[in-house]
Structures are given as C-alpha cells and as structure tokens.
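Ligand: pyridoxal-5'-phosphate. Inputs:
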Amino acid sequence: MSRIYLDNAATSWPKPETVYTAMDVFARECGAASGRGAYSSAIESAKVVAAARTGVARMIGVSDPNRIVFTANGTAALNLAIHGLLRPGDHVVTTVCEHNSVLRPLHAAVQRLGCVVDFAPCDAQGHVTTADILALVTPTTRLVVMTHASNVTGAILPIAEVAAALRSSPTLLLVDAAQTVGRLPLDAESHGLDLIAAPGHKGLLGPTGTGFLYIEPGLEAELTPIWQGGVGSASDDPEMPATMPERYEAGSLAVTPIAGLADGIAYIEHEGRKVLCEHVCTVTAQLAAGLTGLPKVKLLGPPPHALRAGVVSFTLEGYDAHDVAVALDASFGIEVRSGLHCAARIHAALGAPEGSVRMSPGCFTTEAEIEATIAAVASL
Ligand SMILES: Cc1ncc(COP(=O)(O)O)c(C=O)c1O
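Predicted complex:
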C-alpha cells in the first residue's frame, strides 16, 4: 500500500531532493557552528545561514535580511514576539481562528501580566472581517495578533487591510504566516506588517527545526529578547547586543536544518512560488469539491472553489474524527490529522467542538492521490 501524505499543514513532506542533499553535504563536509569562529568552515557555516536569511527575506518582501531572526519553529517565533512585546496590563486583539501557538502565549500573558485579550469572531465560513477586528482596537491597544490563514478552515484573513488601518496608530500587528509563507504573496514592507512569525518547515519546504520572526526596523527597543546567551561576539557585555539579528539569536543556530531551508526556498524560486501555489490550490479545490459531494460529510470553512490555504477539514456525521483518520491510514495508507488541530476556538465557533478530520495537500500531491482519497472517504 503506497503512502498518501495529506498533512502538509503540520509539516511539508516530501521535501525537494535538494533539501536532503544540502543537509547531508553540510553536516558531513562542514558541520561547524556559525558566527563562532574565524576558521574557514565556521565562515562557510555563517555563509549558509546568511544565504537562508536572504532567501527568507526575499520570500516575504523584506530588503534587509538582518531583520529575520531564526527560531526553532513557528511557535518559538510567536512566543518571542508575544512575550517580548507585552507589558503588564496590555490590551491585545486577536481572532477565534488562532492556533495554540498564539492562544497559549496570550493566555500566559493574561495569567502572569494581567493582559486583556479580545477575540474577533468569524462567520460561518471561517472568515474574519477587518471591521470586526478594528471594532475591538482602542487607542491604547498594544498588539493585534492574527493568522494569515486558518490551519483548520484554510480561510484567508485580511492582513493587508488591517495593517493599512493600523499604520498611523501605535498598535503593532503580528502576523502568523504559518499556513501561507512560501505559497501566498506576503509582502512585509509594502503591506506595512510589523512582525511576521512563521515556520520554515511547511510552505518554505525546509526541515523541522526551522522558523523565523521578521521584526520591522526600529522595534528592537520595544521587543525584549526573551532568551539570553552567547552570540559569538561582544562577549564581555552582560546584556544581549543591540544589533540584529544577534539580539534575539542566543545560542548555536541549527545550521544543518537551516542549510535545508535555504535549498527549500531555492526550489520554490526555481519552480516559481505562483506555480506551486496554483498546484496546491487546484488539488485543494478538487479535494474540497469531491468531499462536499459525499453523503454525511460536512466541510468546515469556505466553499470548495473559494481561495483558501491548502487545508480542508470536515466532519463525517456519526463518526469520530479520530476513527476516520485511523481507518484512512490503516485501510488506504492515507495520512491525515484528526481532532482540534491545536485550534479549539475555531472548532467551537463553527459548531464542531469535538474536532474534525483535516487533509492538507502539498506541492507534490497529485490529482490521482486526491481522487483515491475521495474514493476512500466515500467507501467509509
Ligand atoms: C496557524 C499555525 N500557527 C502556528 C503554528 C506553529 O508552527 P510550528 O509547528 O512550526 O511551531 C502552526 C502549526 O501547525 C499553525 O498551523
């Protein structure tokens, strides 16, 4: 039984062949820490990191790669932004579509700092309007945190519109681009996004162990480093340096995965982000349309052919989501997610508090695999 992997919203698989090769070559032939030595392999290692940083900056429309801070994953980037920015009593606006990597740091800020968090609602298709977000923003709101696309419904949220509305206010905007980076257009500078957090291991096609936070120029004074430690320079200063990106990159970087990330981005640029995105949109729409036609299947989120991130979640009346996922794997080799997908609020908002089955195609998913998946669900 061949394997049909439909969990690209968790992490993309397979990676382009060049990603595996880049990591293997780096680990075997260089392997040195980056930013830590003057010998040639340490310099080579620093070059690998610089290439990845430049690649990430290009992908999100940022002119200075040093504004990109590498983290272990998207969650670490969101924690750095949220815990680094929030002060006691701050007011935050977010949405019901968020993942626990936003919800839990915000909950911790409520518990520890007495912060106040308001949630913008979504409609029956999982969309959130700019007006609903702005209605909650006051002149003293510190931060708006919103996902670019829900990891449950795939619904795309209006980040550019919200950014434009907040541009002349002191409120900062943090975008969680976990489900869109490397796929949908994301332009930090022209859209005026203050912070973008994302993994490197989903749409950017890098390995797990990679993520980043983009920090707009001038924010270093407001964003406290939440990790302290060595950065390979200014070692006699007890404070973290003021320079970017070192200010937020304490400790040795994960250079082997970062080497893979650089080649994931190179692959996207070679094939064309738009071409890959169109492919994912096509197979996602095929999947959504096919599932919609099946009895007892209820899709969460936008209609089948609407623009969405590459995610389709559904419930199968009378069946537990977990049982469906187990049956798909055991009988058909189809790998999907079941449960709340770290996003309980959106499930509750859409009337599926018990959870759903989530299928997320990637840029290597074929139309034949989607047909086989629809047939498998039909047979269940
Ligand atoms: C919307 C969203 N935000 C954040 C994350 C967290 O990313 P990571 O798994 O890299 O920590 C995920 C992961 O699935 C996600 O879907």
